[in-house]
Design brief:
four-stranded antiparallel β-sheet, 6 helices, PSTPO5379-like fold, homodimer
Amino acid sequence: MDAHAEPAAAGGLATRLAIRGGAHSGSTAGLAPGFAQANLAILPRAFAADFLSFCELNPKPCPLIGVGTPGDFSLPALGDDIDLRTDLPRYRVWCDGALVDEPTEISRWWRYDLVSFAIGCSFSFEQALIEAGLEIRHITRRCNVPMYRTSLATSPAGPFRGPLVVSMRPFAPAHAIRAIEITSRFPKMHGAPVHIGKPDLIGIADIAAPDYGDAVPVGDDELPVFWACGVTPQAAIANARPDLCITHYPGAMLVTDRRNVDFAAA
Amino acid sequence: MDAHAEPAAAGGLATRLAIRGGAHSGSTAGLAPGFAQANLAILPRAFAADFLSFCELNPKPCPLIGVGTPGDFSLPALGDDIDLRTDLPRYRVWCDGALVDEPTEISRWWRYDLVSFAIGCSFSFEQALIEAGLEIRHITRRCNVPMYRTSLATSPAGPFRGPLVVSMRPFAPAHAIRAIEITSRFPKMHGAPVHIGKPDLIGIADIAAPDYGDAVPVGDDELPVFWACGVTPQAAIANARPDLCITHYPGAMLVTDRRNVDFAAA
């Protein structure tokens, strides 16, 4: 226990308890400022080794920050008293690769053989960008970040394969450079962007029509900047077709007790 | 003295001695790989304090890595036996702000009151970019880097004021991001870029017509990336009009005994 332990536990835990109690069912962006958030993928044990390989092979979209033991819905490395069945605002349930439900808790779906994977989230680096004086367009406009399926392929592992999904934030050029510098310090939160400008080069035909989340305007004096996104595994899971898989709903993340700064590179 | 001291002294010193002997009168790009190079500005003592302020106020174009004592043409902090009168391939001599000569040595111009300022150079970070697998267009094409006067103003100090001058290197977007990450580790070599894409936003009307150096092609699938340039002081000196000023000729730098890696941030 260090001097930071108590406020860290309070910020993340209090937020999870509020979500568990039904106080939030939307995006977790901006909740528990300073505390890391995570994408979630829960898979049967039979798929765990291949999915682990998929994450290792694709560290920019899938930076692992925690893995549960089979059947265990806690994740002690990321926080006290985490209950992955109830502590996210909303989930997606996939059967044989098809989306079947988007519930606010998943107790009835839980199984003894499920393994939980927590993947770093760009909401963490957004706070560092705001502290540097940058405007995050989807936060200013109070909507979800725009996300796109690209023409870039992930590295396949077993049955897991599919396109890289990216999130997009527009910035004036000097701010784009600053955003690249800052996010390169957070390799466990997707790190530096994968693309900048020229959306067509990565298969994005219409920047105003994201595949997930909400469109935001990009000014003539701005460049769209694209980061690898933790929704990428959801596209791979649709291809792998496990009998059961549970993910977070895009934007509705696991709020942890770990501080963002704990994940910053030196 | 550490284990690296001897090869460091040999690489930089041998190159300077060759230049002193008349073996090179062109660009120093690619000479003494691994050793830092520097822009040079030599000014009368009466202008030294204001020029020092100008560098402090404009650390991206003017990152100071060494300052001489008045009248001294050595720079022991940057290398053994440096003679600033003879050790650069070519110089520019300015009288009252006007360019009057471009000699290969400046012994006849030296004065007891001259103060020498060595400013970090982008040639240093170019080696790090090449080691990361990036192509540097002007090196591939064996020409000088293109440089442009911009519409961005420097912060003035006393009589020193003028536009920011930038150097430009084109990269595919993913390589541009990598270049930003790498150069941000070299704050004493101009650091991260100041602009990317959209040259018109910083007053560059025609990317094919640089104000200094040589034009290089920019592909449709590439972005021009702009770094603050050590030629910036030359524009400020033209405005300050000291009775005498001596600078390096663009591209013909001081080769030091200090290793590039010694200037990298943690």
